[in-house]
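Input.
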Amino acid sequence: QVQLVESGGCLVQAGGSLRLSCVTSINIGGIPAMAWYRQAPGKQRELVATITSGGRANYADSVKGRFTISRGVATNTVYLQMNSLKLDDTAVYYCMADYSSRSGPTFWGQGTQVTVSS
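Output.
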């Protein structure tokens, strides 16, 4: 079982920046991949970014060039740096620990609200 606790969500103006954090309850180095998802009101949850234990990152087209996912191994934390925020980035952001590459489960955090205002 992996517990994930997100933080950092808040109200921010369009064009601004925000950094989300997700602390894991276990050594993050042992988790095959971590991901950030988001869900806007009335929409399905969508993948934002992933990072493997080897540090390889991938992004949704909608956030490429604006968001950066990273890991702090010493702090067991995964980050999502969000720059040039747009109104469409408003959503609840969820952290996910992904063991599916090892035929294992996924674990989710409780989410953190990001609201971008004009």
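The chain has a mean pLDDT of 96.
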